[in-house]
Design goal:
Distance between the termini: 51 Å
Largest sheet: 9 strands, mixed
Strand content: 25-35%
Shape: globular
Number of strands: 21
Length: 414
């Protein structure tokens, strides 16, 4: 088995991308949903602002676009639902998803998984993050038989290690029934994972483990049988452990995790617009830092306790619930909202280069907050609650168009 501390690090870094077959948890499949700003269920599509089909001759979706922040919940890890992460989606899109916790005795690489699905009102545009999958492999034939028996009992499935490029080709063909072309490494995102790999490898060395973590990130273009097009982005993490054996020279054990593939499906002939929308959605992902801290603390303690016969999961979950409740004071909630609206200060030249590749721009509102929105629009307005209006039409003013709204014009960051 790979080291338990190594798995804790792996689970923690996979959720930075924020997050196959769906393994059942101890409590079964949860009821999960996205919640837009204001607390209205996403399944009801209750918008944060009026949605006129045309205002003064201007049509939403053609002349301007309104995007709302949708908040996704963890309903399983704590005594009460907790906001885990949030993403921007165009107004009116149907959304569902959230966080699912697996059984402790199940596949550790699939212990904490999230899922998001968003669809435009006409169904022509879709964004989805299928749940991540984790696989095991070993060069030892006898150990492989044991691992196969464990897989049949609910553990990780057996599969030879693979890269992100190989995963994209296979997932597109087998799961999406689509053809993947122009599959290439995503160097920008890969740089982030190389840093995470080094952090995980340093921790493994501290524990004296002969193990290493290697990640690959790739992106491909999808073509579906009905003519629609799309994008598939995948991250694959291979955790490799060498176990020396004086009798036969030792064996290699590998855990391969396909960390939350991201799929965007769009109408035929609109691939460039599809890429802009995909990059805006990806750039808007925000993880609740209070939730992440509680989750990581639990995973760390779990890794330390797995040597014992009983891990007292219910007691640990209760402790994490109380820790979260103490942190969720009014001040903590305000700090989280402030954090959500601020962007970390980065090197501006590198930031502009990355934004050009992803086709997004940074806009600032009157309160000093900033957000990345899809490029190609000359004007933007914010209402201060996670809703935005984008337009290229001269003279368009959402305050006049919507009358009862309080929209503030934003400035593009130079």
């Amino acid at each position: 088995m790979l080291s338990r501390s190594f798995f804790v690090v792996l689970l923690s870094v996979l959720f930075l991308t924020g997050c196959g077959s769906r393994g059942e948890s101890a409590a079964g499949e949860p009821a999960i949903e996205g919640v837009p700003v204001g607390g209205a269920p996403a399944s009801g599509n209750r918008d944060a602002a009026p949605s006129p089909s045309a205002v003064n001759g201007l049509v939403e979706g053609r002349d301007y676009m309104v995007v709302n922040r949708v908040r996704f919940l963890d309903r399983m890890g704590f005594d009460q639902p907790v906001e885990a992460f949030s993403i921007l989606f165009p107004r009116g899109w149907r959304t569902e998803g959230g966080v699912q916790w697996g059984a402790i005795q199940g596949c550790r690489g699939e212990f904490v998984r999230n899922h998001v699905k968003a669809t435009s009102p006409d169904g022509a545009w879709q964004f989805e993050t299928p749940m991540m999958r984790s696989f095991s492999w070993t060069s030892d034939a006898m150990l492989l038989q044991t691992m196969q028996a464990g897989a049949q009992a609910g553990g990780c499935a057996i599969n030879r290690p693979f890269t992100a490029q190989q995963y994209i080709e296979g997932f597109a063909r087998q799961e999406l029934k689509a053809l993947a072309a122009n599959i290439r490494l995503d160097e920008g995102r890969l740089a982030v994972f190389r840093t995470l790999d080094e952090q995980a490898n340093n921790i493994a060395r501290q524990y004296g483990n002969q193990s290493r973590q290697e990640s690959s990130v790739a992106q491909g273009e999808l073509s579906f049988p009905d003519g629609s097009e799309g994008i598939l982005l995948a991250t694959v993490v291979n955790a490799v452990m060498n176990k020396p054996d004086f009798l036969n020279g030792g064996a290699t054990q590998i855990t391969t995790t396909a960390a939350m593939p991201f799929v965007m499906r769009c109408p035929a002939g609109r691939r460039e617009e599809c890429a802009r929308m995909f990059n805006m959605i990806m750039a808007s992902d925000r993880v609740n830092p209070v939730w992440r801290e509680a989750k990581d603390r639990f995973l760390g303690r779990l890794g330390q306790m797995e040597h014992a016969a009983s891990m007292e999961r219910i007691r640990l979950m209760g402790e994490q619930s109380r820790a979260y409740a103490r942190a969720q004071s009014d001040a903590a909630d305000r700090n989280m909202r402030d954090w959500e609206s601020r962007q970390a200060s980065q090197d501006q030249q590198h930031k502009r280069f990355v934004q050009t590749i992803r086709e997004v721009e940074t806009w600032k509102d009157s309160g000093g907050g900033s957000v990345e929105l899809t490029s190609g629009y000359s004007q933007a307005w914010s209402r201060g609650d996670g809703s935005y209006v984008l337009s290229n039409s001269p003279g368009f003013d959402p305050n006049s168009a919507f009358r009862d709204q309080n929209w503030k014009q934003m400035q593009r960051e130079q």
